[in-house]
Amino acid sequence: MLYLITGIILVLDQWIKLLIRNSFQVNQSLPVIKNIFHLTYIRNTGASFGILAGYRYLFIMISLVVIGGLLVYRYRLNARSPFLDTSVGLIIGGATGNIADRLRLGYVVDYLDFRIWPVFNLADSAVVIGVGLLILYIWKVEDIS
């Protein structure tokens, strides 16, 4: 299940980013719900919110370390939990999607623009949701112990 979720997130993320790159000019915005939600094509060379722009290889290395750590955690735990697999799959799928952008393009394609928050993408969303689920999983496991 872990690899299925990782693959689905990665393929969906890269497909949407390809559509955005082929359909929009950089900084072009299309209102979906005016002043609330737009599709806006941004090239992000930094981390979240564009901080530390230009540290492409640092972000790739950090992402790879996190992915490795998650896989070690999951396999050492030896738990066959769909909840754990879902959370780790979301994180790894999202991280891998952004790594693919950094390696191939030199930047991450962002496009989800809610106007009150910096522009982000599906991969970012998957990582955030996955981390939230992982925290709940760890909290639940610690609660049982």
Write the layout of secondary structure elements.
Elements: H1 2-23, E1 29-33, E2 37-44, H2 56-77, H3 82-105, E3 108-113, H4 122-144
Antiparallel strand pairs: 1-2, 2-3
Helix pairs in contact: 1-3, 2-3, 3-4
Can you describe this structure in just a few lines?
The chain has helices at 2-23, 56-77, 82-105, 122-144, and strands at residues 29-33, 37-44, 108-113. It is an alpha+beta fold and 145 residues long.
Instruction: Please identify the structural class as seen in this structure.
Output: alpha+beta
Secondary-structure element order, as H and E?
HEEHHEH
Range of strand content? 5-15%
Radius of gyration: 16 Å
Task: State the helicity in percent bands.
Answer: 55-70%
Give the termini separation.
25 Å
Please mark out the parts with pLDDT under 50 across 5 or more consecutive residues, or reply none. none
Spatial sequence of strands, sheet with the most strands: 1-2-3
How many structurally independent domains? 1
The main pleated sheet reads as:
3 strands, antiparallel
Shape: globular
DSSP E strands, number: 3
Key features?
145 residues, alpha+beta, 3 strands
Describe the structure.
- By secondary structure, the protein is α+β, with helices and mostly antiparallel strands.
- The protein has one domain (2-144).
- It is 63% helix and 13% strand.
- Strands 1-2-3 form a 3-stranded antiparallel beta sheet.
- Strand 1 and strand 2 form a beta hairpin.
- The longest helix is centred in the middle third of the chain and has 24 residues, at 82-105.
- The radius of gyration is 16 Å and the shape is globular.
- The mean pLDDT is 93.
